[in-house]
Input
Amino acid sequence: MTPYISAHERLRSLPELFRGSDLTVRHGFDSKTASQYLYLWKERELVAPLGGHSDVYANLVRNPQPQWERAVLMAMPSAVLVGIEVLRRAGWTTQIPSRPQVAVNASQRRYRVNPYEMDFRGAKWFKQAAQGIVRHAKEVLPSLHPAWALADLLRDQEWGEMGLHPDDIEWGALDEAAQEQWNQACQAYGMTAEPLGKFIAYSR
Output
């Protein structure tokens, strides 16, 4: 007779983030049984899905505060944090986006997932932005340098249209290194590299 194993015991044997397919390996379930368990665990709020068809789940028994950035990287290795959230984390703005924006290579694995605004971009953009992508610890998504993120926001939209106005930027946080990164970003994106100081006048 197969011994009873509780949901908590099963989940404690799994990592904080796991794939649904891990259940077939760890516990010998077929795909149908694994799906049934995942459904029941989700209903009991023991797991939380990343979303889409990513097959990535947060194990709330192991960690009730999921590391969603790790989960996104697990599902989509090409993911890069872009947009206003990059500027907020760097101290360039106090504005908070409703959902952080993540760029993903459209030619690779991609899903629309709950915690983020997913932006599927072509390989050309990833080549253009390569010099401006900053790699962090494994738990954190790679991100654009904030100067590159600002240039990226202004590539196709004007101030105001892209969610920020000049007076939303903490211009005092910018230094010569930021100007250099801005120049490189504008060159990569085919933009005119205006001095960042020019925008300060717009904020007054």
User: Anything to note?
Assistant: The chain has a mean pLDDT of 91. The chain has two domains: 7-66, 71-202. The two ends are 76 Å apart (CA to CA). The longest strand covers residues 101-105.
